[in-house]
Design goal:
This protein is of the alpha+beta class. It has 3 domains: 191 residues, Histidine kinase-like ATPase, C-terminal domain (Heat Shock Protein 90, 2-Layer Sandwich); 125 residues, Ribosomal Protein S5, domain 2; 247 residues, 2-Layer Sandwich (Ribosomal Protein S8, Chain: A, domain 1), CATH 3.30.1370. The protein is built from 18 helices and 27 strands. The strands form 7 sheets. The protein has an 8-stranded mixed beta sheet. A 5-stranded mixed beta sheet has the order 9-10-15-12-13, sandwiched between helices. A hairpin with an 8-residue loop joins strand 18 and strand 19. The longest helix has 18 residues. The radius of gyration is 30 Å and the shape is elongated. It starts with 8 loop residues before the first helix and ends with a helix. About 10% of the residues have low confidence. Belongs to the DNA mismatch repair MutL/HexB family. One of its GO terms (molecular function) is ATP hydrolysis activity. It comes from Desulfofundulus australicus DSM 11792.
């Protein structure tokens, strides 16, 4: 083993930079946080080629004098803490004193800064961590930091960067989340000289949400506000249950004005939506927690993206309770005595099956459980004369689907059928999911799926990150039958959808694709994406619990299920049908 040596300053700085500066978004994060800590009310972020070529952050904060500017480029130099005890009550975004030297170690950086009391500013030119030039600078009070050729001296790190579009999307995503944390600050983001996002700085969180997601989504947000004690305050906005996504990326958690990654708080938010969202779907939410600093440890992650909370269980319960209370107050939930009684408001939408007639709850006793002509031709011998007419018998083409006759509907979600071997209970939602899944999957088959042209093109407003993600995979998406046009301001125009897909859900289909492509570590697989897209579309379009079906609708569904390639499970693996044999029934009635 080689002898132990002290690393030279350049190597040590590059190692430190590796902990803090992972990608261009890391640079933007550190510089933005410095600007906010400096009291800036207006911040401009300009990025070229995803930040790999150039990043410029301008602010109107307090600025620095020449001495502090030089000290800021040294490791472990900071104005935000003085002693170990300060680490237990952090109130600023940055405090480690390694952001500027770490960035300077892996880039060519220019720092310009001026205090309000000075008649002029100064500039420092730094390359690879070394100051190579300095002098006076004509500028308004504040700070301007320009970072060029990021990772020019660490090619091993640079080769693992994503495309400029992807990196720019990550930058925009973080700027938006920081704007949510500080709605009183006006933040402008420009990528390749095109304005992507502008936070108005009005102090209204909903204005920030509208500026990024669009006014339509902002109108579907419900305010959350609660204060279970003087140590905790909960604020934010959550989406109505009709608005949901295929992953948790749109759940933003802010703690003491800092954007953090917190799976536990995200889970607490999802728990509040218990029974309100389809399986595998997640809400859009912005939750801001103000906790006394002594209960928050922000010194557990080099980039400060994770925190440790004291009284964690109380906080999570309070978050879930506050979100649930807001949903109930907005008349989105029927309140019950406990989670097991919480149910969504049932919607009897127009059926997706051929007939459009429905049964009402008043008709249940006479028309569902006791049909006028109950089909019984498959009952045991000797009982055929019980009814005048037998119903249709459904048999699977492959022979494995049991022959059965429809008896009636057992609300809220089951169909009852009789067969030679006993009673069959069919989950109408799962059964319809399977039928639709196979239909949609067939529409996406082959290397190039057929398209249906929309009579009216659909404008879909996406975030900068989402639009760049779709654009990066546009050929892959086009092979699925989607016809998309990309315009400025992150507007995507949907002109065509895969054949046989519901034409009114173009935006939801794009969100399903984005959710799939945006999963960390996932590389696009056509087969997996086809399954994901078809399963999500089928889940949304399938008849729901509580929807009454006429006899014709129920029989049509059973015919379609019998003809399916795999009629026994839904796309998510849940059973569509269960069987109770005559022997089991006899045992239950003590006849054996």
């Amino acid at each position: 083993m080689p002898n132990i040596v002290i690393l030279d300053e350049t190597t040590a700085n590059q190692i430190a930079a590796g902990e803090v500066v992972e990608r261009p978004a890391s640079v933007v994060k550190e510089l933005l946080e410095n600007s906010l800590d400096a009291g800036a009310s207006i911040i401009s972020v300009e990025v070229e080629q995803g930040g790999l070529r150039r990043i410029t952050v301008r602010d109107n904060g307090c600025g620095m004098d020449e001495e502090d500017a030089h000290l800021a480029l040294m490791r472990h130099a900071t104005s935000k803490i003085r002693e170990p005890a300060d680490l237990s009550r952090i109130t600023t975004l940055g405090f480690r004193g390694e952001a500027l030297p770490s960035i300077a170690a892996v880039s060519k950086m220019t720092l310009k800064t001026r205090t309000a009391a000075a008649d002029r500013g100064i500039f420092l030119e730094v390359e690879g961590g070394k100051v190579i030039g300095k002098g006076p600078a004509a500028m308004a009070p504040g700070t301007i930091v320009t970072v060029e050729n990021l990772f020019y001296n660490t090619p091993a790190r640079k080769k693992y960067m994503k495309s400029p579009g992807t990196e720019g999307g990550v930058v925009g995503d973080y700027i938006f989340r920081l704007a949510l944390a500080r709605p009183e600050v006006a933040i402008r983001f420009t990528h390749n000289r095109r304005q992507v996002f502008t936070s108005p700085g009005s102090g209204n969180l909903l204005d920030v949400i509208a500026s990024y997601y669009g006014a339509e989504l902002a109108r579907q947000m419900v305010p959350v506000e609660d204060s279970p004690g003087d140590w905790l305050e909960i604020k934010g906005f959550v989406a109505r249950p009709t608005l949901h996504r295929s992953n948790r990326r749109q759940i933003t958690v802010l703690i003491n004005g800092r954007y953090v990654y917190s799976p536990l708080v995200s889970t607490a938010v999802c728990e509040a939506y218990h029974t309100l969202l389809p399986a595998g779907r997640y809400p859009v939410a912005i939750i801001s927690l103000t906790i006394i600093p002594e209960l928050v440890d922000v010194n557990v992650h080099p980039a400060k993206l994770e925190v440790r909370l004291a009284r964690e269980r109380e906080i999570l319960e309070a978050v879930s309770r506050a979100v649930r209370k807001s949903l109930i107050a907005s008349r989105l939930v029927i309140p019950g005595t406990g989670p097991q009684e919480d149910k969504p408001l049932l919607s009897l939408e127009k059926s997706r099956l051929p007939s459009t007639s429905f049964i009402s709850s008043e008709d249940v006793e006479n028309r569902v459980l006791f049909p006028e002509n109950p089909p019984c031709s498959l009952l045991p011998a000797g009982r055929e004369n019980y009814v005048a007419e037998a119903a249709t018998v459904y048999e699977h083409a492959g022979g494995s689907f049991p022959a059965m006759e429809y008896l009636g509907q057992l609300l809220p979600t089951y169909l009852l059928a009789a067969g030679q071997e006993g009673l069959y209970i069919i989950d109408q939602h799962a059964a319809h999911e399977r039928v639709l899944y196979e239909k949609y999957r067939a529409a996406l088959a082959g290397p190039q799926a057929a398209s249906q042209i929309l009579a009216l093109p659909l404008n879909v407003f996406l975030t900068h990150r989402e639009a760049r993600l779709l654009e990066t995979h546009r050929e892959f998406i086009a092979s699925l039958g989607f016809i998309l046009d990309f315009y400025s301001q992150d507007t995507v125009v949907v002109r065509g959808l895969p054949a046989d897909f519901p034409p009114g859900e173009g935006e939801l289909f794009l969100q399903d694709i984005i959710g799939y492509l945006d999963e960390p570590g996932r590389s696009p697989s056509r087969e997996a994406l086809v399954h994901h897209l078809a399963a999500q579309a089928a889940c949304r379009a399938a008849i729901k619990a509580g929807e009454g079906l006429s006899g014709l609708e129920a029989r049509t569904l059973l015919e379609q299920l019998a003809a399916a390639g795999n009629p026994f499970t839904c796309p998510h693996g849940r059973p569509t049908i269960i069987h109770i044999s005559y022997r089991e029934l006899a045992q239950r009635f003590k006849r054996s």
